Amino acid sequence: MNEVEVAQAMTYANQIDARLQTNDATVEVWWAGLQTVSADAARWAIKKHYAGQNANGEGAHVVNPATIRRLITAELNRREQTERALEPPKGRAPNPISFRKRDPERWDQLVRQGAEDRYNELTRRGIKVNPPKHMQATLNEGGHSFAQGGES
Fold it and tell me: Is 93 exposed, middle or buried (0-12, 13-18, 19+ CB in 10 A)?
């Protein structure tokens, strides 16, 4: 903002809250504090500061450059967090099927090991379950498969 825009912002705030003094010294202080802020953002922050207060400014402290910067920074952070929340994650987890295609033997070994571990854990706890298919002995005679446990 330049000094003219700062004076306009101060006049706008003074129309809302007459406690704000508009003189050369306060314009210089405000300009030093609001050089990096756009005029529209400053006007928005002044409006936001007084919007939650009584219409005549009672109950609110007089707006100052630090309050304006704080409100603008908080709004920018809120918008940035909203944008980040809407973006999909950048480091997506790899698709497990790709590992299965890359190393099918290792995949089968890990699946078998997991099934065996689960079976052993359940039997250790006394829960009766059928063993995994790869642990069952099968006979392939005459085109029929016979699994242990009397199935026919």
Answer: exposed
- Give the tokens for residue 70: 């704080």
Distance of CA 105 to the CA centre of its chain: 38
Ordered DSSP codes for 86-98 = HSPPSSPPPPHHH
C-alpha to C-alpha distance for 43 and 71, rounded to whole angstroms = 11
Structure confidence at residue 18 (pLDDT): 87
The tens digit of pLDDT for each residue in 69-121 reads 999 999 999 999 988 888 777 777 667 677 788 888 998 999 999 999 999 99
Tell me the C-alpha distance between 16 and 150, whole Å. 90
Q: Which residue has the tokens 């290792």?
A: 106
Condensed to tens digits (0 to 9), the pLDDT of residues 10-28 reads 999 999 888 888 888 988 9
Q: State the helix-helix crossing angle for 65-86 and 39-51, rounded to 10 degrees.
A: 100
- Specify the 3-state DSSP secondary structure of 43: helix
